[in-house]
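Researcher: Can you fold this with 3,4-dihydroxybenzoic acid in place?
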Amino acid sequence: MARVIAGISTSHVPAIGAAIDHEKLQEPYWQKFAQGIEPAREWMAENIPDVCVVVFNDHASSFSLEVIPTFAIGVAEQYQPADEGYGPRQVPAADGHAEFSWHIAESLIQDEFDMAIVNRLDIDHGCTVPLSILFGRPEKWPCRIIPICVNVIQYPPPSGKRCYHLGQAIRRAIDSYHEDLTVAVFGTGGMSHQLQGERAGVINQDFDRQFLDSLVQDPESIMERSRTEYIREAGSEGIELVMWFVMRGAMNREVEEVYRFMHVPASNTSYGLTILQNSQ
Ligand code: DHB
Ligand code: FE
């Protein structure tokens, strides 16, 4: 049977992807960030999963703004890096696991999560940057991926509570898949940031720290937070944090935090990374 070996959440800042692609992580601006992600990379290298279920938001790269599914799942054999305006990132295409994707899609829909099914999905920085952060610059990604997209760019986004329940349903889907596979579930995006408007540049480290503490120890205590609260406390793009609840929902109620790293700023964002394992 498939089983979840880790839950990982990380911000997906595009400038990090550019710094990795152009070998700039040793420059002064990125040095502390580079040191901070190193233990996560080492942990990952020793615990490479067969499959990564990557929960991210498409930033109008693959879906455009004409059709925006609230929740979507990729069921393709392969996913190409998206062209986000500067040509696609020079990273490998990600191999999918179509049979496993279809199983998860079926299980989620039977479980009352009406996923959009996506046969072709180009993956933007929301998905590729977390892979680069954890795996560096390999010629081929070391695991297959199953992309799950959450709408956080067009009002109304789903609530943290709904996302947590989606994560629980994803866990049931993974646990019921016949193949013997190890799986890591990634939540991506956040932490506090706002990219436009009067409050562009908002960062709220206290909020981010408390969010992460609560997410790990007591996710139910913060999952009913409103969209307005995210905007007020974490800026308009802070809503990306709801995707971290999908990861958390896929884990046991009691978890062990293997690693945490926070760094401010990374581009316009408060950067956060956590690796969770299920407590025995
Ligand atoms: C930035 C962060 C994001 O999550 C994103 O999608 C785009 C830009 C930033 O910090 O610049
Ligand atoms: Fe984003």
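Model: Folded with 3,4-dihydroxybenzoic acid in place. The chain is about 35% helix and 20% strand.
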